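Dear support,

I submitted the protein below through the web form. The confirmation email said the job was done, but the results page showed an empty box. After a refresh the structure appeared. I'm attaching both so you can tell me whether what I see now is the final result or a partial one.
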Amino acid sequence: MPAVVGIDLGTTFSCVATIDPKGEPGKPMVQLTQDGAEKNLAAEEISAEVLKLMKKVAENYLKEEVTKAVITVPANFDQRQRHATMEAAKLAGIEVIRMVNEPTAAAIAYGVHNEGMKHVLVYDFGGGTLDVSIAKCEGNNKLHTVATAGHKHLGGQDLDKIIMNYALENFSNFPKHKAKMTKRLLEMCTEAKIALSAHETTTILV
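What the results page shows now:
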């Protein structure tokens, strides 16, 4: 039987899509290969493994079972991403009491909600994203988020790549085609970024 595809004929952009019989409709999958065996995993399943580890760490410290949690997410997460996070928690055996935007959680952690009436800007510059929130503090543990925004491609990892690209411009003989060497250079650029947080200069040795 001939293949059937779906076509979105747009004014500016057009695209064509097919359904992979091995996947699930509308759910991206990652194929992992280990010891010759292949396994397809959804993003929720991978995230669930991280949550399971965090759950185990907490249980080892508290010496009791953990079944509920407040989970923070990037401010620019849409409903689909938030739902996926809820599904990941469910797979990890965790009931989500509340989902809080990361900048809002940071504001609460620093106690700004107890400092009287004022507006504050809180940003969370993470490894992969930048999240910003404007919060209205009313005192007496009251904190109202007025607005949130974020950037999906502005984080520590992006700085690592900028430093690496700068290094490559100065290392004319660097074997860019060797993946292991490039990976190692990226690791050294990450170390250089961290060093520059405390020092004005640093050295990248290749």
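Response: this is the final, complete result; the empty box was a page-load delay. The helical segments are 43-62, 79-91, 102-109, 156-170, 179-195.
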